[in-house]
Amino acid sequence: MDLIPDLTQPAGWLPLAFAGVMGLAMLVYVVLDGFDLGVGVLLRQADDSAQKDTMIASIGPFWDANETWLVLGVGVLLVAFPLANGVIMGHLYLPVALMLMALIVRGVAFDFRVKAQVSHKHLWDRAFFGGSLLAGWSQGFMLGGLVTGFQSDIWSHLFSAMIGLCLVAAYCLLGAGWLIMKTEGVLQLKAVRWAWGSLWLTALGIGAISIVTPWVSTRIFDKWFSFPNLVTLLPIPLMTLVLFVLIARSLHRLPTRLAQNNQYGIAVPFAGTIGVMLLSFYGLAYSLFPWLVIDQITIWQSASSPEALMVIFYGVVLVLPVIIGYTVFAYRVFWGKSTALVY
């Protein structure tokens, strides 16, 4: 069976273009909303209300807009790949429902924590923490299900649950890296320690996915371990390992520098974590392509009609630059150290 049709025809290149848009949206979401979910999970470890306010202030201008990318990615899956959407959502309805509930609780807690009485504020902080934790874990569970081809045995579910924990750790690593850049003083030093605590669990999750994915499908195994692919793809795990070493090296040196009020290198952990996620996403995309559901549904088998995709394509051409432009503008305006939390 020819899995890839003629890419010079609309029926060939349109599904590929939408798969690219969906992949871009999910990648940007994981990076951008990942760090503010990580800050939410780390909120519980802050010592006092002032530190928590500073952490909330660091994500205040961004957190809600970051979720735009999730809406875009899921929207593309729904309208451009309805067959795969039905299969994927049918298998993942429970973690998807948990994620949506968690994001709702998180959003409510974000706004209510400042309006609540002092005696009740800690309850909304816990709700923000719980919503962030459950949302991150649910996303990791969904990733584990996608990697295992939605197998329903106990080991697949345990693997997905473990990936959920590892993705939460990756989000915490991103969040700690963000706080290292956006804060100062005691909280900044705490963020360095939090990053150390998340680093190795993140590496465990990436290693587990890298080991399991090729064994799920013989096609994926052949793509990675046949020659010359094995040689040409070797830089991906090597570069990932190098980035982990660079992050660890930076976290080891930062406490000494920060004690001397030297901010040199504070962006390395955050940038290095983004690099790890980019490489991991590339490796996962290479493994899965052209499947949306491993060994069941390809991009082209699931796609809407070329006529429908062309109409949607014009809308994406208009909307996507606006989303990118707004995102860049927002981060440019609110860049720099966080200021006091003011409503």
Give a quick account of the main beta sheet: strands, pairing sense, barrel closure: 2 strands, antiparallel
Q: Write down the secondary-structure element order.
A: HHHHHHHHHHHHEEHH
Arithmetic mean of pLDDT: 89
Helix content: over 70%
CA-to-CA gap between the ends? Answer: 59 Å
The dominant shape is globular
The rounded Rg comes to: 21 Å
Q: Supply the number of structural domains.
A: 1
Count of runs of 4 or more consecutive helical residues? 14
Strand order of the largest sheet: 1-2
Number of strands: 2
Strand content: under 5%
Derived from helix and strand composition plus strand pairing, the structural class reads mainly alpha
- Taking pLDDT < 50 over at least 5 consecutive residues as the criterion, the unreliable ranges are none
Fold blueprint:
Elements: H1 10-42, H2 49-59, H3 63-66, H4 68-80, H5 82-112, H6 118-147, H7 154-182, H8 185-216, H9 218-225, H10 229-233, H11 235-259, H12 268-288, E1 291-293, E2 297-298, H13 299-302, H14 306-333
Antiparallel strand pairs: 1-2
Helix pairs in contact: 1-4, 1-6, 1-7, 1-14, 4-5, 4-14, 5-6, 6-7, 7-8, 7-12, 8-9, 8-11, 8-12, 11-12
Give the gist of this structure.
The protein has 343 residues and is mainly α. The chain is built from 14 helices and two strands, in the order ααααααααααααββαα. It has one domain.
Q: Could you characterize the architecture of this molecule?
A:
With 343 residues, this protein is mostly helical. The chain has one domain. It has 14 helices and 2 strands, in the order ααααααααααααββαα. The protein has a two-stranded antiparallel ribbon. A hairpin with a 3-residue loop joins strand 1 and strand 2. Helix 1 packs antiparallel against helix 4, helix 7 runs antiparallel to helix 8 and helix 8 packs antiparallel against helix 11. The longest helix has 33 residues. The protein is globular. It starts with 9 loop residues before the first helix and ends in a 10-residue tail after the last helix.
